[in-house]
Amino acid sequence: MFGTNLPLIKEEHFSIEDMKEFYLEATYENVSIRLIESNEITVRQYGEPFVDKEYTSSFKDGILHLYFPSRNSRIIDFSLIGKNLRVEIQIPQKYSNAITLITSSGTIKISGEPTWGNTTMESKSGSINIDKINSESLSLVSSSGSINFDSCTVKNISKFKASSGSLNFYNIKSLNSSIETTSGSIRARNIEVSDELMLSSSSGSMRIENISCQLFNIHLTSGSLQVNSLIGKGNIFTSSGSIKINSFKILGDSQMNTSSGSVQLSMSQSDNYTLNLKTSSGNINCSKPLSYEGTRKNNATGTVGDGLNGTLSITTSSGSIHIR
C-alpha cells in the first residue's frame, strides 16, 4: 500500500502477455503508479463503500481498459473529493508498450523510471508528477494543475501543456518538443531537442538553464524569458517582457522581437554572424563593431567574423538592446 486511510474496494491482477496498451479513465481518484518485478499488473482501488462504485475492466484487441465511474451523488460526501481517493497500480518493469492515463479530478504520480511506448497522461484538475520516464512519444496535459518531472528521454515527439499551472522539470531529450502553459511559468534545467522546439506562455515567465536544438520558436505574451545557454536558430517573441540570454551560439538566421521590454544578449565568442538591430524607443549598446543609421542611433548593423553562421535580427518597440 502506498498510503491511504480508506478501505480497499477492489483489487485485480492482469497478465501483460499480449497487452499492447494499458488505458485508464478515472474521475475523482488520484492515480499512483510504481514499477515492480512481475509479469502482472496489479490494480487496487480505495474509497468509501457505497459511495465509490467499483471500476470495470475489459481486455480487447490487446488493450486493457479500466473505467472508474462517477461517485454515487445521492450519498456523496463532497468533503472527501480529492482526499485519499486513490488508485494504486503496480506495473512490471519489463512492460514496454503504450500507456494512457486520464483523470477528471485527481493527480497522477509515477515512481521509478519506466520505459514505455506511446505515453499519454491527462488531468483536467490536478497535477502530474513523474520521477523519470523513457518513451516512444510523450504527451502530458493538465487543464488545472502543474506538471513536474525530473527527466524524460523521448524517441519521437514530446508535448507538455498546462492550461492553468506551471511546468517544472530538469531534463528533456526528444526529437521534437512542444512546451506550453496558458497561465503559469516554465522552469527547466536542460532541453535537448534534435529537431524543433516550441515554447509558449500566454501569462508567465520562462527560466531555462540550457537549450540545444536545430530550430526554436519561443513565444511569450506576458512574461520574461531568461536562458543561460542557447544553441540553435529560430524566433523569439515577447509582447510584454524582456529577453535575457547569457550565451547564444547561432546556427542560422534568427529573430528576436519584443513589443515592450529590453533584450540582453551574450554571443558565443567563436561565432561568425551578422547583426541587424533596431529599437523604436530605447538605446543600442553593443561591444561588437556596428554601423549606425539615423541621428538617434536606433538602427544598426554589424558583422562578426565572416558572418556565415547567420543573421541575427533584434527589434524592440519599447526597450533597449544590449549585446556583448
Number of strands: 28
Characterize the biggest β-sheet: 8 strands, parallel, barrel
Strand-pairing-aware structural class: mainly beta
Span between N and C termini?
Answer: 57 Å
Low-pLDDT parts are none
Report the C-alpha radius of gyration, rounded: 24 Å
What is the helix/strand order?
EEEEEEEEEEEEEEEEEEEEEEEEEEEE
Give the amount of beta strand, in percent: over 45%
Trace the largest sheet across and list its strands: 11-12-14-16-18-17-15-13
Average pLDDT = 90
User: What oligomeric arrangement do these chains adopt?
Assistant: single chain
Rough outline: elongated
Number of helices: 0
Helix fraction, binned, reads: under 10%
Nutshell version of this structure?
With 324 residues, the chain is mostly beta strands. The chain has strands spanning 8-15, 21-26, 30-36, 40-46, 56-60, 63-67, 86-92, 98-103, 108-110, 115-123, 128-142, 147-154, 157-162, 167-174, 176-183, 186-193, 196-203, 206-222, 225-240, 243-250, 254-258, 263-267, 273-279, 284-286, 291-293, 299-304, 311-316, 321-323.
